[in-house]
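Predicting structure from sequence has reshaped protein science. With that in mind, we have picked out one protein's residues alongside their backbone shape tokens:
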Amino acid sequence: MLKQLENRSIPWFGIGITSIFVISAALRFWGLGRFNTLVFDEVYYAKFANNYLTRTPFFNAHPPLSQYIIAIGIWLGSHLPFGNDNVNGLAGSLRSTFSYRWLNALTGSFIPLVVAGVAYQLSQRRSYAFIAALFVAADGLFLVESRYALNNIYLVILGLLGQWCFLLALSHQGRKRWIWLGIAGFFFGASACIKWNGLWFLLGAYMVWAAAWVMRWARLGFKSQESEDPTFSLQNLTQLNFLHILLNLGFIPILVYSLLWIPHLQMNPKPGFWDMQNEILHYHERIGDGPKVHPYCSKWYTWPLMLRPIAYFYETARNTSETAPALPPLPAGAVKVIYDVHAMGNPVLYLLSAAAILLLLLLLAKRFLKRSGWKSPPTPSTWIALYLVLNYAANLLPWVKVTRCTFLYHYMGASVFAALALAWIVDHWLHSVKPRLRAAGVTVIFLILLAFVFWMPVYLGLPLSADGYKIRMLRIYISGLPPWLQQWLPNWI
């Protein structure tokens, strides 16, 4: 199968990638308007998007691009001949739930394809691209975030598009290189205009480029890093000079970020652009941290192990025919069905991908702690490991200094590169001549898909019995352990 995926004359790769997209889209659109309410931060983003349509002034603690996109989705969705079964006025106007969610669902469906593009551009291996897309498609957090009017999906896809175009630029010369770098700068600026942490994708590009120059300068007598294989793009990093970076990955992102504020400032002229940036900064500095601020606050170091996912929606019913939410809440004895939406990743994928990043970091350390490791040009595998580890670090480590309440969804940017790292290792195992490694690769894929199916009810908000809910929240297993041990185990409820 893997040999077939590598064979360009056989369409298995296209069939596989198309299947991933179709299944991802089906899961995101299935029952999209079922919960006729505002779920989690839809109370902000759906309302803000509607405010643009009604020209109602408001203050937003984030840049405006995601609200523009959701507003476009609402306007288009309001003119569609379908999706108008569930309607409410919670966003400020009478809107269907489908109208403010469908564009998120469509956008999220494309993320596995963009990840496949990044993986293929890194390695020129179709099998790696397919496995990476499969892993991201099986991440429950991406599925949940895609099904509601939230903004993290846009941040991730725009940041990844910037990374993809950055890699494409390395594979071209002359004017085409400038064009791809300019497009990359556009996407990086747009990602920052979703949330400021969209800049971490741009930081990753800076770090990879800087690391390439450091390695070149460290190898005395080695004059060029150009590869004999021009399709392997990362080896061309030092072909990018300071002017490339300054104009395309400096000036263009700033320009794009600034221009995207114009529609918001036309409707909300005060505070002005610079005052607005200051207001956003001070707003987040004032939020604080801890359970008193929000019960699902979590520190950055807990994210790779997914110790504190977020409950986006929880309602109870007497039977599956009742429409959720059923208000007021039912007494405990009357609850027969639980509707729960948990913003949580795939537990197996998270654990294994964290281990994969750690393994790549150890392999890089082993190489560069040896004096000989600096003298010889890196192998393609070293380049890929370096790219993945640095981008993972760029998307995770800046949160160390953040003092406000943070959540698991802030890990989404880093988790993509962790999934890419795991896919890289699994792809190598599947190509190994050793049966044990091939079996290990198949086992990892099977366990990730099995976990995705098992936790799917809390991704999609499907009806669960009380016991079924406790099993998926691990309460049945944890409740029987000693209290001192329980406090160190995942607290998912």
Remarks:
- The radius of gyration is 23 Å.
